[in-house]
Every structure is written in structure tokens, then in C-alpha cells.
Amino acid sequence: MKKLSALFLVLIILSGCTREFTEDYTVKYKDFLDYTLGDWTVLNTSNEHNKAIAAGDYNENFIAWEIAYEDNEGNKQIFHMENDDPLLNSIGPHLNALYTKKIRAIVGDSPESIYLNNSNLSGSMMNIAYDENPDKLFENYKDIYKFKDITLQSVFDNSPLYLIVNFDFPKALTDGEELKIVNETKEKILASVPNVNMMIKRFEGGKVFDYYINGEKIFLEEHALYAEYEEKGIGDKYLFEEILRNTVPHFDIEFLVED
Question: At what angle do helices 88-107 and 175-192 cross, to 10 degrees?
Fold first, then answer.
């Protein structure tokens, strides 16, 4: 009982601790920001606070920046950046927002959701590796996250990113009707993004219709690792990500994470 009380006291004490994040990301990542945003201006710098939610969590004090830049179409864009996480946690959502808007203009409202995912970050310590090695972040991602010049194709050039297209069909539709909608959407994407990496699936139930890498449809069951993944009960999505990662091996810098 005394041990439990002591542990509870420690958790209470820890929950009152505050982690301070003071590093200036506009300085640390200036080269990256210059390259990806072009001319940029800090509109606002704010001191933020995240309160610990559960026992054992830390309170956090961190800095957030609102950065303005102009894209290649003359539109003013705002990039939100926070220093309590690796930079990828800020640039990823920004890229998703920009790309989703562009691809929605092509496919319309038919997919329930459509967004980018990074196969190189799944189940790994890659975020930490890039935070510890910002030069590698610039080297590997500078053209993928070149926000000022983003196009539908640019994010897939020599890239571990892929597009997830989710459909949520009414129960009244037949399989044939569903497939017609999927194929129409797929044809629109491939016509506009011939180098797309993509997974097309049903939102509910998880049925996957197609996988694409660099605009080419791939059949997982023909891959050398398929039987091994099946035997271990590893989902097809992870085999797809493994195949995609192997097309861009220079992105794998997990070995650089300090112990």
C-alpha cells in the first residue's frame, strides 16, 4: 500500500512538471524555409501552453509561428509552425491541406476522405532522426515540401508519400456501382497525376481496391514478401509501404537516432 501511495505521489509530482521548448525554429530551419517558402514573413510569434492531461504527463511551454508566403499562383498562404515537435509534424499537415484542396478540385466530393501519408514515418523513429539531423530533412524533403511551387505531381517525385483515397458508399449501391465510381475517380487522378503513389480503399471495412506506385498499378500477391507478410498476419498496407520505401532508400536515416 505504501509503494502504491509513493508511486501515486511521484505521478502527481511529475504531472506538475513543465517542459520548456525554447529553440527558435525560424533560425534552426532557415535554409529549409527559404527554399520551400521563398520570401517569407513571420506574422505572429506566440508563447503557447499545453496542460498535462493524465498523471505522468508533462505541461508544455512552447513557441508557435504564423508565417506568410506567396505560392506560384500568387495566393497568400499561411504556414503554422510549432517547436514542441519535430518540424515534420508542422510541414506534413500544411502539405496535406494544400494538396487536398488541389486534388479535390479534380475528383470532387465523391471520396469520403483523401489525404497524403508518409510511408517512411510509419512505425519508425524517423521523426526523431530528422529532428536530430535537420540537414537530412533539408536534403531529403526540400523538393517534396517546396510549398511555393507545389504541384499535383511534385510531391511524388522520388518520394515516400502516397495518396489515400477513402470511399464510404451508401448501402443501397451494388458492387458494380461502387466499382464504377472508384474507376471514374481513379481515372481522374491518374490523368492529372501520372506519377501518383496511391491506395484506394473503402472507408468502412477497409477493403482496398487498388495500389499504385509511380502511376503503375501493383499487385501485392506477386511480390516476393507477400507470403511472409500473410504468414505473419501483417496487413497488406504495410507491405505496400515497404515496397514504396524501397523505391526511395535514401530517406531511411533511422540509424542516425542517438541512443
Answer: 110
CA distance 100 to 104: 6
The SS3 call for residue 164 is: strand
Is the sign of the CA dihedral 134, 138, 139, 141 positive or negative?
Answer: positive
The rounded distance, in Å, linking the Cα atoms of 135 and 139 is 6
Nine-digit cell at 122? 510509419
Coil, helix or strand at residue 137: helix
Distances (CA, A) of 21 to 11, 24, 61, 63, 127: 22, 9, 6, 7, 17
Place of cell 513557441: 63
pLDDT in tens, 104-116: 999 998 899 999 9
> In 3-state terms, what secondary structure has residue 205?
coil
Beta 18-20 vs 59-70: how paired, if at all? parallel
| Chain segment 15-40, per-residue pLDDT in tens | 458 899 999 999 999 999 999 999 99
Residues whose CB is less than 8 angstroms from the CB of residue 215 and which lie 6 or more positions away in sequence, other chains included:
190, 193, 194, 195, 196
Beta bridge partners, 208, equal 201
CB 198 within 8 A of CB 207: no
